[in-house]
Every structure is written in C-alpha cells, then in structure tokens.
Design goal:
- The structure holds two protein chains of two kinds.
- By secondary structure, chain A is mainly alpha-helical.
- Chain A has one domain.
- Chain A has eight helices and two strands.
- Chain B has a single domain, classed as Helix Hairpins (Orthogonal Bundle).
- The longest helix of chain B is centred in the last third of the chain and has 32 residues.
- The radius of gyration of chain B is 21 Å and the shape is elongated.
- In chain B, 20% of the residues are buried.
- Classes of the chains: A mainly alpha, B mainly alpha.
- At the A-B interface, helix 1, helix 2, helix 3, helix 4 and helix 8 of A face helix 2 and helix 4 of B.
Chain lengths: 235, 128
C-alpha cells in the first residue's frame, strides 16, 4: 500500500515538473521573433554575384557549407559501412519482401529506367529548382527498391560497380576541393566560370559537387536497401 | 475570416504547439514501449518535430522560397532564410544514417539473443 502511494506521489511530482518546464519552454519559443538582418540575407545578397545559382539552398549546402556536406556524406558512408560489417553474408540470404506478381514484374521494366532518369534530372537540376544530390540519390535508390520488390532472384546488384561508383564520387568531391586549394585560396573554391543565372551550365563548381554527392548517395542508399531486403537466412 | 488565420504569429503558434505535440508523442513512445524497433521509430518521430519547428519558424507570410524563377527574378529580402533549410537537409541525412545503423544493430541483437524486448534484456546478468 505504501509502495503504491510512493509511486503515485512520484508520478504527480514528475508530471508537475515536466508540465512546468513545457510551459516555460513554450513561452520562450512563442516569443520567437525573426531578426531582419541574418546570415541568410547576407548569403542571399552574395548569391547573385558570387555563385550565380538560382537555388539559394543549394549554394548554401554545396558552397558556403560545402565542407559540412563532405562530413555529412562521410557520416552516411560510415553508417552504411557499419551496417555492412554487421549484416555480412547477405549474398546467400533470401529476399523477404519479394512476392509473385506478374503485373508488377512487367510494370517494373517500364518504370525502372523512368525513375532512374527522373532521379538524374533532380540531381542535375539541383542548382536551378528544388532538389539536388541527396533527394535525387534517394529517388534512384527507390528504383532499385522497386526492382527488389518485383524480382526475387533474377535481379542482383553488382557490388563492384556500386562500391566503385561510391569511391570514385567521394574521391571526385575531395579532388574538386583540393583543386580549389591549388587554383584559388581555399577548399572548394569556385575555379570554374560562373555562367549566367538560370542556365543549366551555371554556378561553376556547384552542379559538379551535387552530381558527385548524388552518385554517392544513390550508391549508398541502394546498398542499404539491399542489406535490409536480403535478411533471412537460407535454411 | 480566413485572413486572420493567415498571419505569421498564428502560424508560428500552431507550428510551435504542433511540433511540441509530435515531440511528446515520440518521447512518450520511446519511454513506454518495450520493443526496440518501436523505440527507435519513436525517436525518428521525435526528430520530425525538430525539422518542422526549425523550418516552420523561419517562414513568414508573404515570403517565397529562396529560388529564382520566372516570377521571382532576383534575390531580395522577400525570401525566406535558406540557412535553416540547408541545415535541416544535413540533419535529415544524418537522422537516416543513424536510424539505419540502429536498426541493423537491433537485427544483429535479435539474431544473437532471439529477443527484442528491452525489459527482457539480461546480457549483463543482473537481478530481475
């Protein structure tokens, strides 16, 4: 009886403290006001002269914070690498998500190249419209997920090509950054001609960086999808 | 009447309260569920509250996306801040990486011990 009473007092105390903290935090957050002159406005002013990309988010991701994007891609690579170490031997495993559906099997042959092309469109136009390397890479990986769903054992990835694409795109990213150090003064310096805003060939280095990021992300997410789809042991 | 809803303070209040609700749902799920999959998916739900709050609070009524198109022909003060969106893009990718790594750890743990419940974990040999 006394134990039950202790728990109830404890619960009431904790919920009181939590609700007081939530009210304090909410009052703090509800008084939030946007500053008129932020880093974002400075970057928007810089954007029309220095980078010539139509999409300001892309120029922030790949140019002003390009080094962070390199770290982000490295984190994704390390995570997939850790998953591969844990779930090894996936080549002898069964695909648990595949099911026999003739309609899906026929439709996937039509849809697969279209989705790949759409993904590359998103990657290549990342500096002109919403989208970019990460989004397009995930779209390309979704095409491979569709293949895994439709075709059980008829479709398997060539892991040499995937790891080659991943490694070469990572090396390409770093080489572009080092070329910026050699030709200009800083890592990922924009040494290519800028072009005029709104064209496909504009922004100098930014579309190239996003293409490398897109290839790397699509290869990594595709490998991730295969790790999680082929999970059941063959008995 | 609809104009009174389409005001920046009202939208910011809705976003703040809503993201707090989503954060609460995720944290309550993470603290009360016993299945490891459900715990990590609850953390993923709690992360979306952060994304919504960060992007939503930097929106103001009348501002457009920071992209130059046929209608919006130059970068001006009438655009939302691009920096939070870029940072949230980074955060989403890292969240995916961490969630995938956690799920692979859960699968390996289940293969080793045939157990996926937090309250039945006893690898260190503690007293029940």
């Amino acid at each position: 009886m006394s134990l039950k009473k202790d728990i109830r007092v404890h619960t009431i105390f904790v919920s009181l403290v939590v609700s007081i903290m939530i009210i304090l935090l909410l009052s703090l957050f509800l008084n939030f006001e946007l500053a008129s002159d932020t880093l974002g406005t400075q970057i928007l002013n810089l954007n029309s002269g220095e980078t010539e990309t139509a999409n300001a988010v892309t120029s922030v991701v790949t140019y002003f914070r390009g080094f962070d994007t390199l770290g982000e891609v490295t984190i994704l690579f390390l995570s997939i690498f850790g998953i591969g170490l844990g779930l090894e031997g996936y080549k002898d495993k069964l695909n648990i998500f595949a099911y026999e559906n003739q309609l899906l099997k026929i439709a996937v042959d039509v849809l697969f190249p279209l989705i790949i092309m759409f993904g590359f469109y998103i990657i290549i136009h990342g500096h002109l419209s919403p989208g970019g390397g990460f989004q397009g890479g995930v779209v390309i990986a979704s095409a491979f997920l569709l293949m895994f769903l439709a075709k059980d054992d008829e479709f398997s990835l060539n892991h040499k090509i995937i790891s080659l694409a991943e490694a070469l795109s990572g090396v390409g990213f770093i080489l572009l950054g080092l070329l910026g150090v050699l030709l200009l003064d800083r890592f990922l310096g924009n040494f290519l001609p800028l072009g005029s805003m709104g064209n496909l060939f504009s922004g100098g280095l930014i579309p190239l960086i996003y293409i490398f990021v897109g290839i790397k992300v699509s290869a990594e997410i595709t490998a991730l999808v295969e790790y999680f789809v082929r999970i059941k042991d063959v008995r | 009447m609809l104009d009174s809803f389409n005001q920046t303070p009202f939208l910011h209040t809705v976003i703040t309260v809503g993201s707090f609700l989503i954060l609460t749902i995720g944290l309550v799920g993470a603290l009360t569920k016993k299945n490891l999959f459900k715990i990590f998916l609850s953390f993923a739900i709690a992360e979306t509250a952060l994304f919504i709050y960060f992007i939503g609070m930097h929106f103001e009524v009348g501002k457009v996306a920071p992209i130059v198109t046929d209608e919006v022909t130059n970068f001006s003060l009438n655009m939302v801040d691009p920096v939070p969106q870029a940072m949230i893009l980074t955060t989403i990718v890292i969240a995916i990486a961490i969630l995938a790594l956690a799920l692979s750890f859960i699968i390996n743990y289940f293969k080793l011990t045939n157990n996926m419940r937090v309250d039945e974990m006893n690898e260190l040999g503690e007293e029940r």
